[in-house]
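Check out one such.
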Amino acid sequence: MHTHDVDEELVAAVAEVARTRCRGDNHTMAAAARATDGRIVTGVNAYHFTGGPCAELVVVGTAAAQGAYGLRTIVAVGDRDRGVVPPCGRCRQALLDYFPALEVVVPTPGGGLRAVIGSFGYSSVRNGAAIRLCCASHPAAWEAACCRGEQGDHGRLGHRTSR
């Protein structure tokens, strides 16, 4: 895992989307990605009890719909001024599988931000490889749940939604 400078413009863009577009219980997270051509693509989650898509996966699809198939950096921000939130296990796996060299902006234990690249704390399950879903930037309860493979429902752990 390597750390890089944080794309502050990208963080500001997603914070604005979270502040202005995340309303109510159905849209509680925003994400933004910097495409390899430099443009910023944004999206919000679509919460549903059946497991609606997270904001990061919405951004991946939106980017593809706009012809941006390469992403350089991604970041997610919670509504209600929750700040930058690391991707859940499902999103981390999808991001790794789609974009192995993607930079992901995550919070640091000291309250700052860092951009991590590469496996950002876990490995791919493609071709039967083992997966490790823990990241040092997650709260202890979230890390424990990730290690048990319970990363699927954000709301159950109180990590990403208010439900």
